[in-house]
Amino acid sequence: MSEAPEPTAPPRLSGLKALRVYRHPRVTAMLFLGFSSGLPFLLVFSTLSAWLKQAGIDKTTIGMLSWVGLAYTLKFFWAPVVDRLAIPLLTRLLGRRRSWMLLAQCGIAAGLAGLSLHAPEDGLSIFAWLALLVAFSSATQDIAVDAWRIEAVGTEYQGAMAAAYQLGYRVAITVASAGALWLAADLGWRVAYLVMAACVGVGVLTTLVISEPAARANPLSAEQERRALAWVEAHAHLPKLLRDIGEWFVAAVVCPFLDFFSRIGIRTGILILAFAGCYRLTDFTMGVMANPFYLDIGYTLKEIAAIAKGYGIITQIAGTILGGVAIARFGTRRTLLAGSVLVIATNLSFATLAMTDDPGLWGLGIVIGADNLAMGVAGTALIAYLSGLTSASYTATQYALFSSFYALPGKLLMGGSGWVVDQIGWPGFFLYTSALGVPALILLYFLMRAEPANSPSTAS
What we know:
Layout: H1 17-20, H2 25-43, H3 46-54, H4 59-65, H5 70-73, H6 79-84, H7 90-94, H8 96-116, H9 124-152, H10 158-187, H11 189-199, H12 201-209, H13 219-233, H14 240-264, H15 266-279, H16 281-287, H17 290-296, H18 301-330, H19 332-355, H20 360-387, H21 395-414, H22 417-435, H23 438-450
């Protein structure tokens, strides 16, 4: 099958025009949906790891428990269900995207409330299952929110939507990290997690207020789906149940993959997926051990809350806004390149912090500020890049595929982060995480050469 022509890239904006994209009403709504997506994330990762550390759980076990986050990575398996399956009554009342958002938010609230009723020292089994419920529900919410974000506005606003999402996400990260740590220090971990469960109400309210985006499709995707379904119809000898299952599977799972590779090309498509898988390796492998690192070198929970989580979020918000403006001004691939270099450099600064006898709060603040600025730029660029690759016919499934690919390698390596620290120490660990960013730079070079210049995702 020949490749479909690439759509024309949106024009780059200059000066104040690059900032005005943030005034769109749905861009504003994206702030709150970003908060809803970001809230559960650290509550099953670094914040949870601090609770486990204080409960006396060893670092290797802490790292292994982070594997509950594989739900975020494997979400493309059930993304076709979110893309096409209607929830009885709820979908008729709210629409396809909002109904799945609401159902997922209920699961997140239930899981966090359940965690508040259990302590890790009482037994990790139930604790781990509740954490998995939160991660699974959160991943499902991400599928629906990502689809809404891409479908709600045109291509010219996707950079701003990505930045707004990241901004809301980072505010939620502050609440779920600094806020939860502060509450835990004064009132205990159980109260902290119960308050976090109540904060899920922000997402619920936003879901009820926003409107459902209009469903869209493109002729190429419709033609591919007709061809795939024709193959199913040719197997009329099969029992009806098997034919129904096969028809659903081809339409919901096979066609999104065919659509992506037919539009992009097989070689470029594989290169894109490999690049996405490498781009956030440094962030994921370092992130789960951040709080244990801060505690090991002598910082208290309140100092971590104030500097690493409170002040740090300000610089990450700045990086997020800067990333959105940079995309509008310079294009996505240049912003991707800048973000990748910054993340590598800032992880090297953590190695310096680990080798300093008494870095103090100023040393922590400088390193955290630089790292969060870099993550804000890199995260916004990657979201905008992957969003520009999706088809309107398979928004949820294709974006779930992309986001799963960018998370899978990092999540797998994340589980061994504690073991790496035990083997080579903190300075060596941060040299290791910095080196993990190099493959993304190499792949980005080849990707920039392979992708057509008029692609909206690669405009420079």
